[in-house]
Design a protein that fits this description.
Tetracycline Repressor, domain 2; single chain; mainly alpha; 14 helices
């Protein structure tokens, strides 16, 4: 179990962003592309896990000071450093091997992700603001990977929205680090010295506002209306707004601004909101041949 925990499989949910370009392109039910994206998901997950191991290996001493991270396999001593290095090497070989078989161009994007996060592990994460943008860039590279694998157009709007959403979640994580520092008096990471609650609260407000505006502009842009053949995508904006408001509520009211994936797994409101957003988007994009939805189209 400790070796599985070392891979952080719960964080693999982030790699579902690879499927976003195909979904927004309106071609989500093309089996061949879905299969290719599944293998891309596996490759990305293996490389991401190798990065997690490198990060945990370097931070194992600092992680022992953290109330949650001290339970990680390397920090707790459940997995030896030498065993972790071997597993990391195997993951890198397997990840890039699968990526090459999936699509050679995918290897380039995956390689950029690996090198960027390697730099993050070896010191870039200690630079305030830059650490947030590196985390956000990882999500942009995920959707770029999905675009390359599925050979679909990646809208500039999608890139902007994913970047903003990733920045928003990264700010929430940094706010959690600052709160831990305030409560415990210990620096959990060096970049925390460049933040305080006032700055992070302002950044959350600014970025969340931009996300809503950018999403609505995307749904109502002439290019998107023409390409997807519908003007109704703006209906889905209500779920985006509800999800952001709930996340802000968790941050400010419940003080749960930690891992976004943990919140996604545990918070029922967020889960229902994401589900309804997906259902509404699927209904609008993929229901042309369903009679009942054609009737609804005439009404709305």
């Amino acid at each position: 179990m400790a070796y599985l925990k070392l891979l952080r499989p719960k964080d693999w949910a982030k790699n579902l962003f690879l499927f976003i370009p195909l979904f927004f392109a309106g071609n989500f039910f093309q089996t061949a592309k879905l299969i290719s994206l599944f293998f891309g998901f596996v490759a990305f997950s293996l490389i991401a896990s190798s990065i997690y191991i490198i990060n945990d290996y370097r931070d194992r001493e600092d992680d022992r000071k953290h109330p949650i991270k001290r339970n990680r396999p390397l920090a707790s001593g459940a997995v030896s450093p030498s065993a972790a290095v071997v597993i990391m090497a195997l993951l890198i070989v397997a990840g890039f091997g699968i990526a090459w078989v999936t699509r050679p161009e995918f290897v380039v994007v995956l390689g950029v992700y690996f090198l960027l996060n390697l730099g993050y592990c070896f010191g870039l994460k200690n630079i305030a603001i830059l650490d947030i943008f590196i985390l956000a860039a990882g999500f942009v590279l995920r959707i770029k990977s999905g675009s390359v694998i599925a050979d679909v157009h990646l809208s500039e709007w999608i890139i902007i929205m994913v970047l903003l959403l990733a920045i928003f979640m990264a700010i929430g994580k940094r706010r959690d680090d600052v709160l831990l520092k305030v409560n415990s008096g210990a620096d959990m990471r060096k970049s925390v010295k460049g933040y305080n609650l006032e700055l992070l609260n302002v950044l959350l407000a600014v970025v969340s506002s931009i996300i809503v505006v950018a999403y609505l502009m995307y749904t109502m842009s002439p290019e998107v209306k023409e390409r997807l053949g519908t003007y109704r995508l703006y209906y889905t904006g209500v779920f985006v707004l509800a999800g952001l408001m709930r996340y802000l509520q968790l941050i400010y009211v419940s003080a749960e601004s930690g891992s976004p994936t943990r919140i996604l797994y545990k918070d029922r409101f967020i889960q229902v909101t994401v589900f309804l957003w997906i259902i509404s988007f699927v209904t609008i994009l993929y229901s042309e041949n369903v009679p009942i939805f054609n009737i609804l189209r005439k009404l709305f």
